[in-house]
Amino acid sequence: MSAGRSEPTATQLFLGARLRRMREAAGRSMAEAASALRISSVAMRRLESGHLMLEPAQIAPLLAAYGRAEAADEIQDEVARARCPGWWERYREVLPDWLADYLALEEHAQIIRLYAPSTVPELLQSPGYAKALLRIQHPDDGARLINRRLELLIGRQAALRRTAGRPPSVWALVEEATLRRQVGGPAVMRDQIEHLRGLAAESGFTISVMPLHTAHAALLCGPVQMVRYQPADLADRVLLRTLDGAEVSDRPDVVRQYLMALDSAASVRDSLPITEWIANWEERAVA
């Protein structure tokens, strides 16, 4: 799918998936569940896919049909959350629609895989690197808008250390050219590389560098970000950057193609941990 405002939110998708699991566990057919709510089977299918919101008045009869009346409070809370705007909505002036939809999905991910051929992935950027890159990407923005974009990015990065539920595991493969491209100058890059090394020292982060001398065909493309959910309530998604934004796809053939490429790139023996990589310019700087 392409991200767009008509798509269901991540909270709707997860709520729909939970309702489907409850129906299946209760041994109820789609038609039986629809009958309990006095709606059509088509509407019931849309409800379970997240494309139709469950109304508060529908919770009790649906859970009664599933023999799960004790879950009413939890479902009520999920319905309320699904109706609330995300924290990122207050950054609408600098938030494209595709990113608004994707942020909700990203916040629920349990595994995030990244490939960075040209710039450090946004989730792994230091504040100084991010600000320097934002100035390059948005040359017409004044200081206020650049700072708003930076605040949005820092808020997005908070998902990596979320305390509500287990934070995601992050695996990143960074091309050496990315680290040699001096966004913001040597001091900013030194801070960025130390930031990556600090992340790699934390539990749940694996950050590797692909040396320039290594020729591999697995991922000779633009930046890739793949998210996975556990339990597998939703299909994997892959985010591909384009010149005018990004495309988010959950098409099985597309996801499978990039998953195979990421797995292949991860197996290239020349890659090394970020903690062992040293840039020549860094050596000169400290000489």
3D structure, described in words:
The structure is a single chain. By secondary structure, the protein is an alpha/beta fold. Helices cover 47% and strands 13% of the residues. It is built from twelve helices and seven strands. It has helices at residues 10-26, 30-37, 41-48, 56-66, 72-82, 97-107, 127-137, 143-157, 176-180, 186-200, 252-266, 280-286; strands at residues 111-116, 169-175, 205-210, 224-228, 237-242, 245-249, 272-273. It has a seven-stranded mixed β-sheet, with helices on both faces. Helix 2 (30-37) packs across helix 3 (41-48), helix 4 runs antiparallel to helix 5 and helix 7 (127-137) crosses helix 8. The longest helix is centred in the first third of the chain and has 17 residues, at 10-26. The radius of gyration is 22 Å and the shape is elongated. The termini are far apart. The relative contact order is 0.13.
Supply database-style keywords.
287 residues; alpha/beta; seven-stranded mixed β-sheet; 13% strand
